[in-house]
C-alpha cells in the first residue's frame, strides 16, 4: 500500500506527488513542530535499486547544511517503507513564481540567484554536486531568502554518472554522463537565471536529442538578456567546464560585483522589495500560511514534490535526538526493524570516485566579449588521458589557434571601430576532428571575421593541427613528410599527387589558366600569422591538404582549397614517425585500401572489399564478407552492418522502438549471425546502455543479449540517432566498426 505513514506524525496536507514518492506536510505529535516528509511509495520498499537511490538522497542531505538549504532532520527506513523528514519552508517555488510573473526584474532575479547559489556553495563545500538545479527546486520566502531543495540525483564532486537531470538546464558534460563538478551546477543555475530575466529558457526544443545538441553546440543567446548581466550569462553558460566559474562561491562573488556595478549598492534590497509585491501574495497562499489561518488541509502545489514544499517558519525546526528516539522506538515496536540516519551521521562511507578510463573528445563552444568585438566559435577538447600533464599540453595546443588568432587580428591596444550599421565585428570558428585514436588527434579550424574593416567580405582562413598523444607535441606540416619541405623536386611530386586526387567540383580538378608551382618551402614559410601556404592533417582515409591556391595560379575564390590524397599515394613521401603513428608501416592495418561509403547523413571510411547495398529503401546492408556481394546469398545471411531509416515505415516494416531490441518485422527476428536462419531471437537482456560517438555527434547505444530458440546467443549492438532517425545494427561483432563510426564525417 502507498498510504504507509510514519507513526508519531499527523499529516496535515499534501505538498505534491511524483513517480516514486509523495511529499506531505505533517506535525510531530510530541513536539507539535511542522515538517515536510518525503515518502518513497511503499510499492518500491522491496526494490533494492529504488531504495538505494532514496537512501542516497538522505545521505547526501546529511552532508550539506546552511541557511540556504532545506535541512534534513531524519531518514527512516522500515520493511513497510522509507521516509525523509525535512525542514518545512514557508514560501513558494521559483517555478510557481515564474508561472505568475513570467519575467523578473534583473535585481530580483539576481537576489534569488544569490541565495540559491549560496545554498549550492554549501553543498560544494561538502563535496556534493546537486545536478538538478531548476526553478522547481528553488524556494522563495517572503522574508527575503531563497533556499535549495531536492538532492535526489546529487553525487559527490568528481563522480561520473548516467545522464541525469532536467534537460532544459543540463550542462554539456552532464548529457554525456561525464564527471560531475560544481561548475555543472553553475551552468544550470545560469540557465535558470536566463529564464528569469528573458522570460523563456535559453534553449527550447520538443525532442530531447535536439535540446541536447543545442546545449552542447548552439551559441549562448546572451543578447536576449539585459546588457549588464550578459557577461554573467556568457561565463556561467560556457560550454567548456574550464571556462566557467569553478563553483558557486566564485560565481556569487562575480554576481555581486556585476550587480553593484550595474544596479548600485542597494541592488539586493531593491530586488527583494520588488519580489515582495508579487511573491508576498503567493506566499500567503502557501500551505504553512493557510495552516496558520486554521486550514487543516493544505492544497497541492503545482510543480511536483520538490517544487511544492513551500517552506519554513523562520529559522526551521529542531527535532533533535528526542524525536529520533521516539520515531525509532514506536516504529521498531510496530514492525521489528528500523534504520534511522540522522543529519550528522557519518556511518556510511562516501561512494568511490570514478575516473575516466579512455580518451574522450568533445566539440565545445567558446563565447567571449572582447575589446570592440566578440567571439563565438567551436573548439576541441580532450579528457581521459592517463598522463594528465600530457592531457594539459594537448588541450593547450588545441586552444592555441584560437587564442593567438583573437590577439592577432586586433591587438588589445588597437580595438576595431564599429561597423557602418553600428554593430561590432564578429569572430567565429568551426572545428572538425579529422582523425582520433590512441596515437594522435588531428583537427582543422576554419576561422572567419564578419567585418567590412578587413574587406567587403571580411576575412577567412584555415588552420590544421596534428598532435602526438604520447607526449602532447604538435607535429608541424613540414614534419609530417620526409624531405619534402625545402626540396623542390619532392614538393613537385606532392603537388602532382594533389592534382591527381582532386575530385570533380574541387578547384584542383581543373588546371589554372596560368599554372604555377608550389614554392619549395610552402610548408614552413609563413603565410598567415600562424599558418603556411600548404597545411596538412591526417584524416581517416588520406591526408587532408589546405592549400593557398593562388600560388598555383588559381583565383582568390579558390583560396584556400582542400584536397584529400589517399595514403597509398603518399607512402614514399611521409616521414617514418607519421607512418608509424598512422599504422602505415609493415603489418599496419591502415595500409589496406579503403573507400568512402555514403549512408545518408554522413560518410564512413570502410575497407575496399566491403560493399554498401542500396536496393532496399528502408534497410541497407553494409556487407563485410566477399561472398555476400554475389547474387546467390541474401545480405541478411552474411556478415553485415545494417543501416535502417526509422522515419520510413510500411505494413511489413514497423518502426524501431528505442529501449527494445531491433526488430522491424511483424514476426520474431531470425538468428542469421549464428548461421541458423530457422531459429528466432527471444529473451532479451539489456547489457549496456550509454552514449557513443558517431563522428562529432552522440548516438544512444544499447547492447542486447538475445537467446535463440536453439539455445545459442546473439549479441545485438544498436546505435540510434534520434535527430536523423538512423538506426545502426551489428549482430556479427564486426571488427573495427566502433572506430569506423567514431570517424564518420557528417555533412
Q: Keyphrases for this structure?
A:
eight-stranded antiparallel sheet, 5 domains, alpha+beta, Phosphorylase Kinase, domain 1, globular, Transferase(Phosphotransferase), domain 1, Heat Shock Protein 90, six-stranded antiparallel sheet, 747 residues, 30 strands
Please provide a written account of the structure.
- With 747 residues, the chain is α+β, with helices and mostly antiparallel strands.
- The chain folds into five domains: 9-90 and 288-342, Phosphorylase Kinase, domain 1 (2-Layer Sandwich), CATH 3.30.200.20; 91-208 and 221-283, Orthogonal Bundle (Transferase(Phosphotransferase), domain 1), CATH 1.10.510; 356-411 and 421-474, Heat Shock Protein 90; 487-592, no CATH class; 594-746, Protein Transport Mog1p, Chain A.
- Helices cover 25% and strands 27% of the residues.
- Strands 22-23-24-29-28-27-26-25 form an eight-stranded antiparallel β-sheet, with no helix packed on it.
- A hairpin with a 4-residue loop joins β25 and β26.
- α3 runs antiparallel to α5 (182-198).
Quick recap:
The protein has 747 residues and is of the alpha+beta class. The protein has five domains: 9-90 and 288-342, Phosphorylase Kinase, domain 1, CATH 3.30.200; 91-208 and 221-283, Transferase(Phosphotransferase), domain 1; 356-411 and 421-474, Heat Shock Protein 90, CATH 3.30.565.40; 487-592, no CATH class; 594-746, Protein Transport Mog1p, Chain A, CATH 3.40.1000.
Amino acid at each position: 500500500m502507498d498510504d504507509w505513514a510514519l507513526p508519531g506524525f499527523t499529516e496535515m496536507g499534501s505538498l505534491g506527488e511524483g513517480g516514486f514518492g509523495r511529499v506531505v506536510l505533517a506535525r510531530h505529535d510530541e513536539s507539535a513542530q511542522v515538517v515536510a516528509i518525503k515518502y518513497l511509495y511503499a510499492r518500491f520498499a522491496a526494490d533494492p535499486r529504488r531504495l538505494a537511490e532514496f537512501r542516497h538522497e538522505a545521505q547526501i542531505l546529511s552532508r550539506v547544511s546552511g541557511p540556504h538549504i532545506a535541512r534534513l532532520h531524519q531518514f527512516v527506513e522500515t520493511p513497510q517503507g522509507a521516509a525523509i523528514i525535512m525542514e518545512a519552508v514557508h514560501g513558494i517555488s521559483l517555478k510557481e513564481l515564474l508561472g505568475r510573473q513570467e519575467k523578473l526584474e534583473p535585481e530580483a532575479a539576481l537576489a534569488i540567484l544569490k541565495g540559491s547559489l549560496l545554498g549550492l556553495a554549501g553543498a560544494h563545500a561538502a563535496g556534493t554536486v546537486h545536478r538538478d538545479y531548476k526553478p522547481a527546486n528553488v524556494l522563495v520566502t517572503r522574508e527575503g531568502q531563497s533556499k535549495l531543495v531536492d538532492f535526489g540525483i546529487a553525487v559527490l564532486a568528481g563522480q561520473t554518472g548516467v545522464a541525469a537531470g532536467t534537460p532544459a538546464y543540463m550542462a554539456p558534460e552532464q548529457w554525456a554522463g561525464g564527471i560531475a563538478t560544481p561548475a555543472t551546477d553553475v551552468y544550470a543555475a545560469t540557465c535558470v537565471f536566463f529564464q528569469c530575466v528573458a522570460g523563456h529558457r535559453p534553449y527550447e526544443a520538443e525532442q530531447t536529442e535536439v535540446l541536447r545538441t543545442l546545449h552542447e553546440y548552439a551559441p549562448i543567446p546572451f543578447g536576449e538578456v539585459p546588457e549588464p548581466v550578459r557577461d554573467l550569462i556568457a561565463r556561467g553558460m560556457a560550454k567548456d567546464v574550464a571556462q566557467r566559474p569553478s563553483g558557486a562561491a566564485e560565481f556569487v562573488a562575480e554576481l555581486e560585483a556585476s550587480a553593484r556595478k550595474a544596479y548600485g549598492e542597494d541592488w539586493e534590497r531593491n530586488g527583494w522589495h520588488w519580489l515582495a509585491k508579487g511573491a508576498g501574495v503567493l506566499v500567503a497562499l502557501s500551505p504553512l500560511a493557510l495552516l496558520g489561518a486554521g486550514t487543516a488541509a493544505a492544497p497541492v502545489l503545482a510543480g511536483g514534490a520538490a517544487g511544492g514544499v513551500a517552506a519554513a517558519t523562520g529559522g526551521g525546526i529542531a527535532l533533535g535526538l528526542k524525536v529520533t528516539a521516539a520515531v525509532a522506538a514506536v516504529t521498531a515496536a510496530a514492525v521489528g526493524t528500523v534504520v534511522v540516519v540522522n543529519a550528522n551521521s557519518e556511518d556510511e562511507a562516501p561512494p568511490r570516485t570514478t575516473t575516466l578510463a579512455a580518451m574522450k573528445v568533445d566539440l565545445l563552444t567558446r563565447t567571449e566579449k572582447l575589446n570592440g568585438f566578440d567571439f563565438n566559435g567551436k573548439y576541441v577538447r580532450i579528457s581521459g588521458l592517463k598522463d594528465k600533464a600530457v592531457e594539459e599540453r594537448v588541450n593547450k595546443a588545441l586552444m592555441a589557434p584560437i587564442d593567438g588568432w583573437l590577439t592577432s587580428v586586433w591587438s588589445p591596444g588597437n580595438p576595431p571601430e564599429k561597423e557602418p550599421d553600428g554593430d561590432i565585428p564578429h569572430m567565429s570558428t568551426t572545428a572538425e576532428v579529422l582523425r582520433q585514436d590512441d596515437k594522435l588527434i588531428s583537427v582543422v579550424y576554419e576561422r572567419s571575421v564578419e567585418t567590412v574593416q578587413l574587406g567587403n567580405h571580411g576575412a577567412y582562413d584555415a588552420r590544421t593541427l596534428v598532435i602526438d598523444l604520447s607526449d602532447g607535441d604538435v607535429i608541424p606540416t613540414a614534419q609530417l613528410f620526409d624531405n619534402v619541405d625545402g626540396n623542390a623536386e619532392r614538393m613537385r611530386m606532392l603537388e602532382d599527387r594533389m592534382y591527381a586526387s582532386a575530385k570533380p567540383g574541387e578547384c584542383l580538378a581543373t588546371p589554372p589558366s596560368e599554372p604555377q608551382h608550389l614554392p619549395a618551402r610552402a610548408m614552413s614559410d609563413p603565410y598567415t600569422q600562424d599558418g603556411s601556404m600548404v597545411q596538412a592533417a591526417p584524416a581517416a582515409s588520406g591526408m587532408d591538404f589546405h592549400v593557398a591556391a593562388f600560388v598555383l595560379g588559381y583565383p582568390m575564390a579558390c583560396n584556400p582549397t582542400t584536397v584529400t590524397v589517399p595514403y597509398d599515394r603518399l607512402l614514399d613521401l611521409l616521414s617514418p614517425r607519421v607512418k608509424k603513428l598512422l599504422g602505415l608501416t609493415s603489418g599496419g592495418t591502415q595500409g589496406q585500401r579503403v573507400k568512402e561509403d555514403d549512408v545518408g547523413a554522413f560518410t564512413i571510411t570502410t575497407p575496399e572489399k566491403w560493399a554498401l547495398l542500396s536496393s532496399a529503401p528502408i534497410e541497407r546492408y553494409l556487407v563485410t564478407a566477399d561472398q555476400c556481394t554475389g547474387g546467390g546469398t541474401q545480405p541478411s545471411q552474411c556478415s553485415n552492418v545494417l543501416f535502417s531509416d526509422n522515419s520510413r515505415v510500411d505494413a511489413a516494416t514497423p518502426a524501431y522502438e528505442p529501449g527494445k531490441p531491433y526488430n522491424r518485422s511483424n514476426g520474431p527476428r531470425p538468428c542469421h549471425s549464428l548461421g541458423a536462419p530457422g531459429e528466432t531471437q527471444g529473451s532479451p537482456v539489456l547489457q549496456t546502455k550509454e552514449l557513443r560517438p558517431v563522428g562529432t555527434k552522440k548516438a544512444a547505444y544499447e547492447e542486447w543479449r538475445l537467446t535463440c530458440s536453439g539455445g545459442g546467443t546473439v549479441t545485438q549492438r544498436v546505435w540510434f540517432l534520434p535527430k536523423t532517425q538512423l538506426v545502426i545494427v551489428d549482430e556479427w561483432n564486426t571488427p573495427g566498426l566502433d572506430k569506423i563510426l567514431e570517424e564518420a564525417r557528417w555533412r
